[in-house]
Amino acid sequence: MPELPEVETTVKGLRKTILGLTIKNVWTDLATKDKRQKSSIANLKFFVVFKKEILNKKILSVERRAKNILINTSDGKTILVHLKMTGHLLYGKYKFHPSPTLPLTRGGRRVGSWIPSEKGPLNDPYNRFIHAIFVFSNKKHLAFSDARKFGKITLLDSYTAHQSKHLNNIGPEPLDKKFTLEKLKECLNKKPNGKIKTILMDQSIIAGIGNIYSDEMLWRAKVNPEQKISKLKDKEIKLMFKAMKEILAKGINFGGDSMSDYRNIHGLPGKFQLHHEAYQRTGEKCRKKGCKGIIKRKVINGRSAHFCSFHQKY
């Protein structure tokens, strides 16, 4: 799942490309009767309302909250996009190909597929799962590619967006200047019996951190992923705080992690996966200078953790 650096990379890209543009049309082939998605564009009734509300609206700003992308439009509406497991947004020129075997429309929506109209990285195989398209006033498109169709696109009132059910139970942003060492301690102490790997990924405790970056932070801070919060030493928390800031900034500097599906808005992979010290390095020698350890993998509360057998002992 894209984490804070991948979502931040996407937001930065959107700020450079779609600000000031007007939405002229929107399309999706997502369709479900699952009540859990009644407020997403995968629900036909919601999509009808969604389309009506955003047509001819101008893009005013784009922001990130945890792993959510917030596209703020004129008339006080915010399009919220959550990439979930395999989603990413792509910007460029696309053309529509009607299905040769299916009806022209289904539920009022054209049936077919969208493909890039120009050669380039948008043609990367990971970018071919297009399930939503926004058409802009400059004749270009914002495409939502999502292989597993777990992603979410919904609409909120801008003035109350952060109080909505989608955003109201999220912890503080770890790269915020107000996120100090004392704030980290305060957050961790909310669940003193929790294991640090699990707590770092809890979005109600700290925003935006997932499997990849929690592994890398803990490796750098020399903290075992199974260590209970109540057993952490003050020195370890200080090292974690420093590692958290550094690793997340590094992830953004390298354009995110593309070990899996993630691509930036131009269809290009990030490069953080080339700099892993722990994540997905099971069985390999630890790269920490002077360390004799081997990277091990262990499932903790249903999630994989990668750590050094030597310098992350507890």
Automatic annotation (TrEMBL):
NCBIfam families (UniProt xref) = PRK01103.1 (NF002211)
* Family per similarity comment: Belongs to the FPG family.
Q: Which reaction does it catalyse?
A: Hydrolysis of DNA containing ring-opened 7-methylguanine residues, releasing 2,6-diamino-4-hydroxy-5-(N-methyl)formamidopyrimidine; 2'-deoxyribonucleotide-(2'-deoxyribose 5'-phosphate)-2'-deoxyribonucleotide-DNA = a 3'-end 2'-deoxyribonucleotide-(2,3-dehydro-2,3-deoxyribose 5'-phosphate)-DNA + a 5'-end 5'-phospho-2'-deoxyribonucleoside-DNA + H(+)
Question: What does the subunit section of this Swiss-Prot or TrEMBL entry state?
Answer: Monomer.
* PROSITE patterns cross-referenced by the UniProt entry: FPG_CAT (PS51068), ZF_FPG_2 (PS51066)
GO terms classed as biological process: base-excision repair
Q: Which cofactor does it need?
A: Zn(2+)
InterPro entries per UniProt: FPG_cat (IPR012319), FPG_Glyclase (IPR020629), FPG_N (IPR035937), H2TH_FPG (IPR015886), Ribosomal_uS13-like_H2TH (IPR010979), Znf_DNA_glyclase/AP_lyase (IPR000214)
Gene3D superfamilies the UniProt entry points to: 1.10.8.50, MutM-like, N-terminal
**Keywords on record:** DNA damage, DNA repair, DNA-binding, Glycosidase, Hydrolase, Lyase, Metal-binding, Multifunctional enzyme, Zinc, Zinc-finger
- Say if the entry is tagged with keyword DNA damage: yes
Pfam name, any one = H2TH
List the GO molecular function terms. 8-oxo-7,8-dihydroguanine DNA N-glycosylase activity; class I DNA-(apurinic or apyrimidinic site) endonuclease activity; damaged DNA binding; zinc ion binding
Name all Formamidopyrimidine-DNA glycosylase catalytic domain ranges.
2-151
Name of the protein in its database record: Formamidopyrimidine-DNA glycosylase
Annotated FPG-type domain ranges read: 277-313
